[in-house]
Amino acid sequence: MRYNELGDTGMKVSHIGLGGAAFSNIYGTYDEKRSFELIRESLNRGVNYLETGPWYGQGSSERTIGKALKDVPRSSFFIGSKVGRYEKEPEKMFDFSAEKTEAGMDNTLALLGLDYVDLIQVHDVTFAPDISIVLKETLPVLERAVRDGKARYIGIADYDIDLMKEIVEESEVKISTVLSYAKSTLFDNRLQNYTNYFKSKRVGVINAAATGMGLLSNKGPQPWHPASDDVKAICKRASDYCKSKNVELARIASWFTLNQPGIDVNICGFFNVEQMVDTLEILDSGLSEHEKIVLSEIQTRFFDKVTLHWDDVELPAYKAELDKVINK
């Protein structure tokens, strides 16, 4: 396993981190026993950073990780969680207020069974009614949580990298990390346009969703995936091509992402131990010659001339759902 300094936090984190969305029904049927095995075997194999949050299973992710870590020495791992995104119902999904942030922080620690988290992040700030709420309410509460020993560092997690950059620049509260997802992939590698900036600010860079939340896999994405049908169709063609060559698209997509520079930790969501072991082997041993050829071919055929994304999709969709609830 490779280890990197996470910004100026002093934390030396594994290049591959364990994603907590897997410990919910977001990517498949949740199974507690399988989740425990995955968490413990990941730690045994050198993964020392775990990423979670209340949104993942409305507490099931944090609760599962807490149970799995019960007898694990606290000094042997780092863990990050989140505030800001909570429930499935549109009217309760996001809350960046000071009151909810304080309660969310305490609930996270209770579910994890920990005295503190190493990193507490504001989740999906795009959905805040106004960025001033994040700057004036959410972040000051988290700063107080750091002073009180409930967290060590503060971060921002969002799909919009420009927005995270704006917060880093404007916040009076120190931002130690940013978490970007689905923008260090074969179809969208825009995170590379920002890593030098964040490094210049000594902000740690966390990346997630090497497969674009399932788009870059032979299985394909979940029905809820926000990408357009056109984006899904291109990725499906890439997947079909990989299948015809007896190659798993998720493997070569993961290798591509894990080898991008300037990223301190890559959060990977695994369904089981086998997937985790396979990804660690990709990092350690690389791709076969046949996989390298297929990677080059799908880049040329499907991804080199276009950036695929779902910018400006989720926020309007959320607002439309919220309007339906309000106008009932």
Automatic annotation (TrEMBL):
InterPro entries, A to Z: AKR (IPR020471), LGALDH-like (IPR044479), NAD(P)_OxRdtase_dom_sf (IPR036812), NADP_OxRdtase_dom (IPR023210)
One GO MF term attached to the UniProt entry: L-galactose dehydrogenase activity
Residue ranges of domain NADP-dependent oxidoreductase in the record: 16-290
SUPFAM superfamilies: NAD(P)-linked oxidoreductase
Cellular-component GO terms for this entry: cytosol
Protein name: D-arabinose 1-dehydrogenase
Organism: Papilio xuthus (Asian swallowtail butterfly)
The organism's taxonomic lineage, starting at the top: Eukaryota, Metazoa, Ecdysozoa, Arthropoda, Hexapoda
